[in-house]
Amino acid sequence: MSLPDDLSLVHTTTVTTFVCFISQPKESSEQDGWSSDEKPVKIDKWDSAALKNALDDGAKKVILEGFKLKESHTLFDLRLLICSVAVGFSFFALLWDYIKPFPESRPVLILCVLSYFVLMAVLTVYTTYIEKGIFLVALDKDEAGMEPDDVWELSSSLKKYDDKYFLQISVKPGTTQIIRSLDITKSVSDFFDENGKFDYDRFEPEVRILKAKLSESHKE
Amino acid sequence: MNTFLSRLNTIFAFTLSVMAGLTFCCFLTTAFNEHKAPVYIGTGKAIVKNVPDYSATREKNDLGFVVFDMQADLSRIFNWNVKQLFLYLTAEYETKDHVLNQVVIWDKIIKRGENSVLDYRSSNTKYYFWDYGNGLKGNNNVTLTLSWNVIPNAGTLPKIRGEGSHKFKFPNEYSTNRL
Amino acid sequence: MSKEKMSGMFGFEFLDDVRRMNKRQLYYQVLNFGMIVSSALMIWKGLMVVTGSESPIVVVLSGSMEPAFHRGDLLFLTNYQEEPIRVGEIVVFKVEGRDIPIVHRVLKVHEKDDGHVRFLTKGDNNSVDDRGLYAPGQLWLEKKDVVGRARGFVPYVGIVTILMNDYPKFKYAILACLGLFVLIHRE
């Protein structure tokens, strides 16, 4: 259940950089993640899910491209697995009911229906108690390869009809295993303009400073 | 919530859920009603013939004739979640071939607001009382019951048997005179 | 690159969300769509198992049961084999050679001691019994013809289904729009 590491995001990014480079030569160095040369993210500013996704993606970019941490996909992959199995059960039920019409297919249907709803319950528990809004797990590899990895987790929330974006970064150092976290709550209007264009360059420092503070505190 | 369409959509969805909720509450208020009522049924003289049933097999089957009296007051069954009552008078009996025979010989729809006090004297049956075979002659245990199917505005469709029934018998000889 | 240009040219801005997704997210979008379909499917199959009927919810299509049921009313059915069929009950049955099941009331029942039962139906609003509707030569219905018996009733709700079936293009357009929305819209 491990998909090959994704490259498409990086790919489009380089392409855009290239286009930008032709149109307006700019002194920006290659992809460094501290500033964005991508086609700016523009969303419907009234859509809170879109707002949250844009901000989450921004924070992700800071951590992965700015700080060059390695993303760990396990958390999301497990969710994908649960969903896949659930959908698998339902399609199997559909197929079985087609091959052996109803009264005969009853035992299999019972099994599939029960499994499906149990998996949905598991999924709910998983997203509320295990994922808890975490949208990125990143590993900070020890360069010497001696110590276990530091595990960074980013979680966020944005209530519907509310403009306050809550972002939490927490770190579990491989050496001490003592979790420390810092968070900020900011109005989304700080990072989006009237038209819903995401201003990455204003958002990036917030995340960078948060991350840097945490890094320092755990180095001490 | 910034466009006309999204507001319309929200209002529509909210209206629908409120209506669904209210409908369910309406169903709950009457869900535990028993819908019972006493019924008096009586019959006049019954006769039985043995004639071919051209609507079915064309074989000779028993055909019963009976006139009935019936009194019942069903007005207390009606409430705000009863759209109509479907009344039916059932003749139930046992024959050699069949342990259970049920034949509806009369029915009536009473909508809410219509007269729900029944008073019938020497009334003829609405449907032919055909047996499946020849089990009516000499049958001395035919039970008449009035039942009703309550049709709500929304909810369950209970089938209630009226309190009180009437037993009668068919003669041991076929009647030959034309009725 | 061509993709990028295309979007600029035709203003497919609503696809930007999709373009920003990685493979996992794309797969999740498809899964999300699959789960919406699956939930509906599983609720339906679950109802089938609970009620024992192959179609636990039906929409009344004709006026033959008026004034009890009108076109567009919704009926909940059960079909427990151990429950006997009795007169006065409203059954939904299939007739050979007819695609659409019929919902009518039982008028006569003749049951043998081995449990084999023959019954005759009639629509409340029809003046004659259903023998004319049955397959040629068929005089009685049997238990195997029954799809379910009406247990619950909700008015009007089914009119949506009727409208959709009357205008199939409209139905497919709506379904396609909803499907597309779910696919390209991040939760």
UniProtKB/TrEMBL annotation, chain A:
One of its GO terms (biological process) is protein targeting to ER. Keywords: Endoplasmic reticulum, Membrane, Transmembrane, Transmembrane helix. It comes from the Eukaryota. It is a multi-pass membrane protein. Component of the signal peptidase complex (SPC) which catalyzes the cleavage of N-terminal signal sequences from nascent proteins as they are translocated into the lumen of the endoplasmic reticulum. Enhances the enzymatic activity of SPC and facilitates the interactions between different components of the translocation site. This is Signal peptidase complex subunit 2. It is found in: Endoplasmic reticulum membrane. GO terms for cellular component: signal peptidase complex.
UniProtKB/TrEMBL annotation, chain B:
InterPro entries: SPC3. The chain crosses the membrane at residues 12-32. Keywords: Endoplasmic reticulum, Membrane, Signal-anchor, Transmembrane, Transmembrane helix. GO terms for biological process: protein targeting to ER; signal peptide processing. It is found in: Endoplasmic reticulum membrane. It is a single-pass type II membrane protein. Its main location: endoplasmic reticulum. It comes from the Eukaryota. Belongs to the SPCS3 family. PANTHER family: MICROSOMAL SIGNAL PEPTIDASE 23 KD SUBUNIT SPC22/23, SIGNAL PEPTIDASE COMPLEX SUBUNIT 3. Essential component of the signal peptidase complex (SPC) which catalyzes the cleavage of N-terminal signal sequences from nascent proteins as they are translocated into the lumen of the endoplasmic reticulum. Essential for the SPC catalytic activity, possibly by stabilizing and positioning the active center of the complex close to the lumenal surface. This is Signal peptidase complex subunit 3. It comes from Mizuhopecten yessoensis. The lineage of its organism: Eukaryota, Metazoa, Spiralia, Lophotrochozoa, Mollusca.
Automatic annotation (TrEMBL), chain C:
It is a single-pass type II membrane protein. Residues 44-132 form the Peptidase S24/S26A/S26B/S26C domain. GO terms for biological process: signal peptide processing. One of its GO terms (molecular function) is serine-type endopeptidase activity. Its EC number is 3.4.21.89. It is found in: Endoplasmic reticulum membrane. One of its GO terms (cellular component) is signal peptidase complex. It catalyses: Cleavage of hydrophobic, N-terminal signal or leader sequences from secreted and periplasmic proteins. Keywords: Endoplasmic reticulum, Hydrolase, Membrane, Protease, Signal-anchor, Transmembrane, Transmembrane helix. The chain crosses the membrane at residues 26-44. Catalytic component of the signal peptidase complex (SPC) which catalyzes the cleavage of N-terminal signal sequences from nascent proteins as they are translocated into the lumen of the endoplasmic reticulum. Specifically cleaves N-terminal signal peptides that contain a hydrophobic alpha-helix (h-region) shorter than 18-20 amino acids. Component of the signal peptidase complex. Belongs to the peptidase S26B family. This is Signal peptidase complex catalytic subunit SEC11. It comes from Mizuhopecten yessoensis (Japanese scallop).
